[in-house]
Amino acid sequence: MIHRIAFLGLGAMGAPIARHLATKGESPATVTAYDADPARLAGLDAPRLVATSDLARIDGAQALFLCLPDGAVVEAVLFGRDGIADRLAPGAVVVDLSTTTHADALRIGRRLEQGGRAFLDAPVSGAPAGAEAGTLTVMCGGAPEVFARLRPLLERFGGTVLHMGPLGAGQLTKTVNNVLYDINIAALAEVLPMAVAMGLDPAQLGQVVTTGTSRSYASQYFVPRILKGEFDEGYPLAKAYKDLVSAALVAAENGFPLPVTAAATATYQTALRQGHGDRDKGAMVLPFEDLLGVKVRG
């Protein structure tokens, strides 16, 4: 039974996940939520949740959950100068909720196993709203027995919790999910300006693509924001781009042709080259608006 949990990465996704871990479930567990920035610990008050900027408080944790920006940060946190992997209890499990790459997961998992710790790559999908509601989709890669041991904890914040296969399978699944989402947004970015340039009303067009057969989570989230000219609410383009890079690496290593993905990647790259990296994915519409001399606004 896991009674001592440590959690690192208290952003928009991590903070609510840490709260769910501490407050849900039949078996009580103490969750120590660490961040070097005390400001990020504000608002984390909950039963059995200890917010701290003292790294020593996580010593001996039986499970460590990470929700960090990318694989490089995960590796630095675990194995860097002040790496915390060796602070964990013998036989502890590291659960990485971050979005990294298939190769990252394999490398990190093998290194942890060499040190006597287990690893589960368990990226999540569902955005901050899903994290707040505790309804995230959790895609896990790792040994079946490790997944079985951690599943009760994962279900505290996940509405759909799946074991996708061996080490790396979770990150591979997240890459597939994100790339399909990214392709959808890239298609909206180039087709909507064309439709407006041909004389269609943006607001009415928005109603069609959010209610008709082309509707998707991408259209329902981004089209209303595009119509308002709001491009700063979602995950930044520059950070999201890593999903397409990850897919390209898998394709190159295995000789898989991905022509549609390559085209969507070019759309991302165009927006990035024009300086929209700090804006959300909906900002991919901006280069096409400029090219056609139109605005997709309600």
Automatic annotation (TrEMBL):
<dbReference type="GO" id="GO:0016491">
    <property type="term" value="F:oxidoreductase activity"/>
</dbReference>
<dbReference type="Pfam" id="PF03446">
    <property type="entry name" value="NAD_binding_2"/>
</dbReference>
<dbReference type="InterPro" id="IPR006115">
    <property type="entry name" value="6PGDH_NADP-bd"/>
</dbReference>
<dbReference type="InterPro" id="IPR013328">
    <property type="entry name" value="6PGD_dom2"/>
</dbReference>
<keyword id="KW-0520">NAD</keyword>
<dbReference type="InterPro" id="IPR029154">
    <property type="entry name" value="HIBADH-like_NADP-bd"/>
</dbReference>
<dbReference type="Pfam" id="PF14833">
    <property type="entry name" value="NAD_binding_11"/>
</dbReference>
<protein>
    <submittedName>
        <fullName>NAD(P)-dependent oxidoreductase</fullName>
        <ecNumber>1.1.-.-</ecNumber>
    </submittedName>
</protein>
<feature type="domain" description="3-hydroxyisobutyrate dehydrogenase-like NAD-binding">
    <location>
        <begin position="168"/>
        <end position="285"/>
    </location>
</feature>
<keyword id="KW-0560">Oxidoreductase</keyword>
<dbReference type="InterPro" id="IPR036291">
    <property type="entry name" value="NAD(P)-bd_dom_sf"/>
</dbReference>
<dbReference type="InterPro" id="IPR015815">
    <property type="entry name" value="HIBADH-related"/>
</dbReference>
<feature type="domain" description="6-phosphogluconate dehydrogenase NADP-binding">
    <location>
        <begin position="4"/>
        <end position="165"/>
    </location>
</feature>
<dbReference type="InterPro" id="IPR008927">
    <property type="entry name" value="6-PGluconate_DH-like_C_sf"/>
</dbReference>
